[in-house]
């Protein structure tokens, strides 16, 4: 397949590009490079690379592709809170326009990076794809609105698929430490304590960033009838954790690190535990490569090898929001 990956220079994209190439696909990457020079390790370049804003692509650019894997976005809740309007422009309007152009260009498959964060404060602790959503932030609202509007474009020649990804963690050449697992582990490695900003009780479904990339590949390669206009939670039933469980896992790796509740954010209203049966049903052969424990061991080893320091923890390099604030002119 000829695949256009947007946001290929991000945390998940850095895994997706090599996986697609290994599976024999030809990849064009499109990324505005917001996090240029924040890389941790070498990345694999796609065969063709466009350093461009996805909002400026044309129908002609999309012609000749078999699939679009759309990851480019302002990629978490705090970023959405900095500028909700910009989040809607990029994550919602940008995504819908891209899907409309893909359809017009004859691209038959469109895989959208949605998020389990749309469940917000889950009505029950076993949310599946048919349950009512409760998006609490501009970021989460941008994702659910995109799902609805892109879904309406589905027809015999255009098959969107919506991956409601769990919260990612783990090693990537484009490391982020603004995600809960990575944050707690990086904190312990660099500062010697495990600082929890909430009361530790919220549930989160977790998934290794490479497993999200693997799910994109598997759903992109699945037959159309299985994934046409499908919304699917991406994660594993056994991979739902309370934040305090994550802290305990960090402590197993770094027994000297003390768990500290900073109380910074008070009670976290986002609390969702997610059911992933549909993913197993649609892709019975797809298994997650990582458990939380395995992914944390790998990242711990990487952080140690890189001599991850207090300066690294406090700096901009691995925290999207801090870098974004300095680069806003690129996307405004
Ligand atoms: N990381 C997670 O926990 C998680 C969970 C669920 C869903 N997702 C979704 O998966 C996708 C990828 O997440 P990530 O963690 O790799 O994020 P990331 O921030 O590391 O990467 C996003 C990439 O998109 C690019 N980008 C942003 N706006 C752009 C624009 N207008 N034009 C072109 N490129 C642009 C950035 O430069 C960056 O390289 C996002 O859509 C995110 O919302 C992520």
How are the SSEs placed, and which strands pair?
Layout: E1 2-6, H1 13-22, E2 26-30, E3 48-50, H2 59-62, E4 67-70, H3 77-82, H4 84-104, E5 109-115, H5 138-151, E6 159-165, E7 167-169, H6 180-191, E8 193-196, E9 203-208, H7 209-221, H8 224-227, E10 230-234, E11 240-242, H9 243-253, E12 258-261, H10 277-282, H11 292-305, H12 310-314, H13 320-327
Parallel strand pairs: 1-2, 1-4, 2-3, 4-5, 5-6, 6-10, 7-9, 8-12
Antiparallel strand pairs: 9-11
Helix pairs in contact: 1-7, 4-5, 6-9, 6-11, 9-11
The chain binds nicotinamide-adenine-dinucleotide (NAD).
Nicotinamide-adenine-dinucleotide binds at residues 7, 9-13, 31-35, 53-55, 71-73, 75, 90, 94, 113, 115, 165, 167-168, 174, 176, 179, 320, 331.
Secondary-structure element string: EHEEHEHHEHEEHEEHHEEHEHHHH
Gross morphology is globular
Describe the largest sheet: 7 strands, parallel
Mean pLDDT: 95
CATH fold group of the domain at 2-170 and 205-238 and 269-290: Rossmann fold
Question: Structural class, from helix and strand content?
Answer: alpha/beta
What name goes with the CATH superfamily of the domain at 2-170 and 205-238 and 269-290? NAD(P)-binding Rossmann-like Domain
Total count of helical runs of at least 4 residues = 13
């Amino acid at each position: 397949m000829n695949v256009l990956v947007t946001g290929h220079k991000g945390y998940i994209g850095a895994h997706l590009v090599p996986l697609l190439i290994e599976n024999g696909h030809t990849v064009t990457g499109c990324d505005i490079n917001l996090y240029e020079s924040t890389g941790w390790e070498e990345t694999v370049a796609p065969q063709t690379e466009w350093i461009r804003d996805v909002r400026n692509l044309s129908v002609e650019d999309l012609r000749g592709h078999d699939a679009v894997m759309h990851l480019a976005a302002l990629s978490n809740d705090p970023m959405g809170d900095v500028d909700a309007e910009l989040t809607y422009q990029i994550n919602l309007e940008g995504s819908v326009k891209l899907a409309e152009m893909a359809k017009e260009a004859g691209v038959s498959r469109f895989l959208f990076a949605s998020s389990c964060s749309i469940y917000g404060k889950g009505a029950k602790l076993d949310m599946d794809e048919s349950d009512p959503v409760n998006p609490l932030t501009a970021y989460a609202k941008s994702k659910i609105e995109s799902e609805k509007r892109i879904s309406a474009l589905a027809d015999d020649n255009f098959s969107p698929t919506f991956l409601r990804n769990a919260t990612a963690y783990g090693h990537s050449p484009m490391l982020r430490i603004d995600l809960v697992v990575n944050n707690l582990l990086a904190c312990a490695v660099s500062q010697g304590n495990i600082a929890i900003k909430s009361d530790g009780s919220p549930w989160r479904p977790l998934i290794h960033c490479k497993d999200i990339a693997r799910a994109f590949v598997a759903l992109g390669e699945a037959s159309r009838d299985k994934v046409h206009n499908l919304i699917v939670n991406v994660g594993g039933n056994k991979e739902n954790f309370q934040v305090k469980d994550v802290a305990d896992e960090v402590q197993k790796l770094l027994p000297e690190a003390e768990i500290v509740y900073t109380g910074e954010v008070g009670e976290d209203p986002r609390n969702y535990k997610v059911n992933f049966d549909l993913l197993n049903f649609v892709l019975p052969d797809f298994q997650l490569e990582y458990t939380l424990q395995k992914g944390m061991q790998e990242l711990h080893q990487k952080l140690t090898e890189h001599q991850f320091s207090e300066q690294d923890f406090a700096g901009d390099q691995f925290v999207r929001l801090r870098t974004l604030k300095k680069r806003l002119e690129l996307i405004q």
